[in-house]
Amino acid sequence: MLQSPENSSAKLPSLLWESYYAPATLKEARTLLNENADNARIIAGGTDLIIELERKVRKVATLIDITRISGLDTISLDQNGMIHLGPLVTHNQVAASSLMVERAFPLAQACWEVGGPQIRNRGTIAGNIITASPANDTITPLMALDAQVTLSSAQGQRTLSFENFFKGVRKTELQPNEMVTDIAFRAMQTNERGCFFKLGLRRAQAISVANVAVILRFSENKVQTARIALGSVAPTIVRAFDAEVFLAEKTLDEAAIEQAAELAAQAVKAIDDVRGSARYRKEIVRNFVSRALRQLRDKEERSAWPDRRPMLCGANGPQPNAFTKTVLHRDGREDVVECQINGQKRSVQAANGKTLLDMLREELGLTGTKEGCAEGECGACTVLLDGMAVDACLVPAPRAHGAEILTVEGLSSSAATKLEELHPVQRAFVQEGAVQCGYCTPGLIMSSVALLKENAHPTRDEIKLSLTGNLCRCTGYYKIIRAVERASQS
Fold this sequence. Notes:
By secondary structure, the chain is an alpha+beta fold. The protein contains 17 helices and 22 strands. A hairpin with a 2-residue loop joins strand 13 and strand 14 (222-231).
């Protein structure tokens, strides 16, 4: 457990939490949750929870970090044809999984649409469903896949269908002493095809205005069964039951497609907000369902799926649970975060209650990592955590215990005075003039370094995809992209 020292009460108002546990087993996690249920939360990716704590919309005294428990980050197919996702499975893991692309394609598509690479490296599917926003991308395909969730506590476990799990906007059946331990659904069969569509107000890092998942089972050229789920159109994800019934035993000619799309639009339960009116959402649903049906009829749903998907996870791909080698320990009255930063062993005693970003800047003086938005939107605080690009503003500082961290300061020697002494990416940014105000530059450089470690010779499209988690407010993107291309040639 990591606790704030007793003599630092003056700092407590600025701390995001008071106590931090890193259990090594599920039993320990359930016991801790049972003992602290009223004031505790499970944390894994933290991409939603840290923002809630920063904004003070949620007050939590105790965080229970389950990322050091082995075996919770697995994707598996059991003998009954059910796919299981552990509670630490991230969006990038799903997008990278051949099993998921083959047997749960709509979910793989949705995961690829979530945030940018830094968010997908940390954010978990379990966290997405626990947050229970109707705009969360993964809930819609999971509903279409008829998923179920297993909740576990010190008293036992129970399994609920998604229909019974979700109760409203950010409301679920999860009790304070329970945690998600499994998400399961039947793998799609060879006669089934599915796809996912999302509309956001920009191409990446956007909340859904509306999203749609469609899964069809075919018998020769006719639809045998259909499942259509609609997201961000109601307080919870809704099914277009009338459209599903209508499609049964139909051939997907244009008349049938248009009628099914109209029936799906009628299932929309009229959300009207700043991102879109109820009328607009109905039109989106009508358009998306008709497009989905045509793609599935023509077997074109995978035509735009990229063969190589930049993960910014290092050469070995997504490894969200690579930190199981150590647990937090006590040192006198204070707990100490010990880690490798830029190749040097560092110990920090004042990290509890802070993010990794604050620890780097305030406790270690590594101010190259910038705070732009403090909510994972801009990527200015991108660092590499055990080789994986993450937003430091969304990582609890104690999570760094036992990890290796690389910041922009670690790319080249502090004594470097010549251009050729810089890291190839830094040098290319200078040569291409890819720096304007410079505030976003450290994060862009770190994302570019992560990309080139993963893929030494990316295409221009792959460079663009890798930088979707980074914003340049001076709009210098063309020179930034050229700089990454130049670095890849060096």
